[in-house]
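Notes from the 1:1 (GR / supervisor)

We went over the backlog. Supervisor wanted to see one worked example end to end before approving the batch request, so GR pasted a single chain during the call. The sequence is below; no edits were made to it. Supervisor asked that the structure be written out right there so they could see what the output format looks like.
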Amino acid sequence: MAEHRTVMVAARVTPAEHAVWREKAVAAGVSPSALLRGAMARTRTWTASARAVERERTRQIARIGNNLNQLARWANTHASTAEAVSVIAHLVSFERSLLTVARIGEEDGDAR
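Structure output shown during the call:
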């Protein structure tokens, strides 16, 4: 048996925000309530620790990206077959670094 929706949630919004929400609901072919329920179901909340993990992950990716840009600049300037092996080795290192960064926070149960 389906559970009946009996609780109302109130939110203060501007008339313009309300109009935008109604337009979005019409465009999606659902009621404003269904639109908001769906949006809230997809919303991920962040704890302070999850935010810190994401911030660190972003910093690490930026550092890796900077190194990759330097490597690309060097390769474009000093391209030779013998040096290509070195470039490939560095790219493998970047890949490993990215995989490590992707796992930041997993040991703490960060489900992302």
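Supervisor's comment: Residues 48-108 form one domain.
Batch request approved.
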